[in-house]
Amino acid sequence: MNGVKAAPVDLLHVRAASQRIHGWVHRTPVFTCQALDDMAGRELYFKAENLQKTGAFKARGACNAVFLEKERNPNCVGIVTDSSGNHAQGVAYASKCVDLDCTVVLPRGAPKVKCDAIRGYGAELVFCDPTPTARKKMSAKIANETGKTIISSSDNYDVMAGQGTIALELLEEVPDLDAVLVSTSAGGMLAGIAVAVRALRPQCRVYAVEPVGKGLQKCLEAKERLWPNPSRFLNTIADSIRLQAIGELTFPIICDYADSKVFTVTDDQMVEGMKLTFERMKLVVEAASGAAVYAAVHMMDEVQPPPRKVGVILCGGNTDLDNLPWLTRSTTYN
Amino acid sequence: MNGVKAAPVDLLHVRAASQRIHGWVHRTPVFTCQALDDMAGRELYFKAENLQKTGAFKARGACNAVFLEKERNPNCVGIVTDSSGNHAQGVAYASKCVDLDCTVVLPRGAPKVKCDAIRGYGAELVFCDPTPTARKKMSAKIANETGKTIISSSDNYDVMAGQGTIALELLEEVPDLDAVLVSTSAGGMLAGIAVAVRALRPQCRVYAVEPVGKGLQKCLEAKERLWPNPSRFLNTIADSIRLQAIGELTFPIICDYADSKVFTVTDDQMVEGMKLTFERMKLVVEAASGAAVYAAVHMMDEVQPPPRKVGVILCGGNTDLDNLPWLTRSTTYN
Q: What is the rounded distance in angstroms from the CA atom of residue A174 to the CA atom of residue A158?
């Protein structure tokens, strides 16, 4: 931790977020599973954000950011966001909580189950080309034309602080964790959790879990954005962690507070982790959660000494039950 | 409640079971789900026995009965049981807890996932013809030859007392329930829960949920076993509630303590309830749990006045994830 500069997100922000969103989001349970502990050879603690409001952790950051926007700007005419789906549901839900209009920009081809859910919270959907650039452009255009406020899925300190509340709760239940595994897209959850964990338990490492092709570890080691600009969507079945590049605001925080070691997981491995979670824990999770489960069960020996007690964020459960990947892909999982 | 005769299972037995099995089984969470409450038009409280040890409530009754057997008979050489699968896993798990040998008689064709799980607890499997009579004969034969003790899946008061602990926990968390819905096969869980609920909250109704073809309501109204003898397995996808007839020992208890109204659910309806639970609650449940969910969401108006606060037992989560019924059956669910 760099003591000289003031951190843009710190434990106080996370604690304030926790109070602000209390009652609007669930304090999710932390599960253990003997079968998975036996497979992993260590103690695993699963923070079940798949059971969160809207089916994903995103409700936390969205509520914190939207509620704060309404506090700061009582004349706010509404919210607009771009998202792969889970953040959109979070923002739609948060907007509904405080009676704000909400427009969501989605890449064409987003899962129907997510579109339906967003509409279910009363938000308006606008579709755009499936590139990170197209969706940023479209949401800027809408904000400009309507006066609505953009709440980005990660490059927003209030969102990060909201996601950090996951770590507050997890460490309250399991204070002596050695490591926390966080599936990572633009890095809002990783940044928020890393900030909170560093403040509360500095000896606990916070590791990103990523799909193949992200190359986050090299960037963290170099403390440099080595991604092409504009970056692309990764070719992964985990539709909630498809962004190649970490956000502009999250990256420096992650460099400062997260471990530079990153666990890289193939699609097959994610699906194995996902099916394991359905089968052994009886929890419905999406592929991004499966990535963290796979890393926890099979990859902890990549760091020395391997952690004994590992927190695993089951980041979401919004998956298309008519297209479960172990049934629709050619590989055999078990 | 009939005050004259001494009940073979009462609240004291259930409380003793709760103490006996404490630490060996989970106190499962009680979940609520706004989306399902909205659909049902009432408050639903889901007791998540799918998250129980072995993936089903059966671990409770099995632990109580096996532990008691070991207390009463220190020379016990082992346990034998017949089961559609979940009770077998429970008995195998309970036997392993107290270092007893265990033999499980299964109908040929039992789901592989269940067979593997039973073997995983160190039990020996013996297969028999898929009829209730064949499996009773086979387990009697094994008990006779080996000296092992038979622990039946329901016609055992200790098993019933163990299952009754579900109601203790549920009423501790939601003391003012109006009704509890219990998917029913031989009736061990229904009997245990009905006894505990009647003692703790007499105004709360306990309703069975059954597959088509069981005809339980007529039997309860007549207080008479109207099933053919020997009874058969019902033709339902819910493999954990396939017994047509209620047990000999459970039936009189159910007549005394449960409501005579029974909710009858088709396979299509169970599958709809099952998929709803996956999708909205992010919980993996088996078809028998889906039956109770369907009844809770869609059938409560069959009783007058309809209950406002309803406990729903999610009895288990052991389902074949490679053959989820909404994907393998011809009907469309949503």
A: 25
Q: What phi and psi values does residue A63 have, to the nearest 5 degrees? A: -60, -45
Domains B11-56+156-328 and B58-150 share a fold: yes
φ, ψ for residue B106 (rounded to 5)? -120, 145
Q: Is B55 on the interface with A (CB under 8 A)?
A: yes
What is the CATH number that goes with domain B11-56+156-328?
Answer: 3.40.50.1100
Chain A CA closest to residue B279: A321
Q: How much of chain A, in percent, has pLDDT values that exceed 70?
A: 97
Would you call A84 a catalytic residue per the annotation? yes
- B20 in A contact zone (CB under 8 Å): no
For the record, the structure tokens of A104 come out as: 């969501």
3-state secondary structure chain A: CCCCCCCCCCHHHHHHHHHHHECCECCCCEECCHHHHHHHCCEEEEEEHHHCHHHECHHHHHHHHHHHHHHHCCCCCCEEEECCCHHHHHHHHHHHHCCCCEEEEEECCCCHHHHHHHHHCCCEEEEECCCHHHHHHHHHHHHHHHCCEECCCCCCHHHHHHHHHHHHHHHHHCCCCCEEEEECCCCHHHHHHHHHHHHHCCCCEEEEEEECCCCHHHHHHHCCCCCCCCCCECCCCCHHHCECCCCCCHHHHHHHHCCCCEEEECHHHHHHHHHHHHHHHCECCCHHHHHHHHHHHHCHHHCCCCCCEEEEEECECCCCCCCCHHHHCCCCCC
User: With contact defined as beta carbons under 8 Å apart, do A107 and A130 qualify?
Assistant: yes
pLDDT tens column, A70-121? 999 999 999 999 876 899 999 999 999 999 999 999 888 877 777 888 999 9
Mutate to test the interface with B, among A24, A282, A333 (most CBs of B within 10 A): A282
Please indicate whether, in this complex, the C-beta atoms of A327 and B326 are within 8 angstroms of each other.
no
Q: What pLDDT digit, counting tens, does each position of B272-324 carry?
A: 999 999 999 999 999 999 999 999 999 999 999 999 999 999 999 999 899 99
Chain A residue with CA closest to B31: the answer is A51
A281 Cβ under 8 Å from any chain B Cβ? yes
Closest CB to A282 among B55, B275, B324 = B55
Query: CB B99: neighbour CB atoms within 10 A?
Result: 8
Decide if A282 and B279 are in contact by the 8 Å CB cutoff: no
User: Measured at the alpha carbon of residue B84, what is the angle toward residues B82 and B89, in degrees to the nearest 5?
Assistant: 75
How far apart (Å, rounded) are the C-alpha atoms in residues B60 and A73?
Answer: 54
Say yes or no for a CB contact (<8 Å) between B282 and A321.
no
Contacts of B118 (CB under 8 A, 6+ apart): B85, B88, B89, B92, B104, B106, B125
Domain ranges of chain A: 11-56+156-328, 58-150
- B263 pLDDT above the threshold of 90: yes
The reply to whether B57 touches chain A by the CB within 8 Å rule is: no
User: Which position among B58, B70, B114, B148 bears the catalytic label?
Assistant: B58
CATH code reported for the domain at B58-150: 3.40.50.1100
Question: Given CA atoms A283, A288, A294, A299 in this order, what sign does their dihedral have?
Answer: negative
Instruction: Tell me the shortest Cα–Cα distance from B324 to chain A, in angstroms.
Output: 9
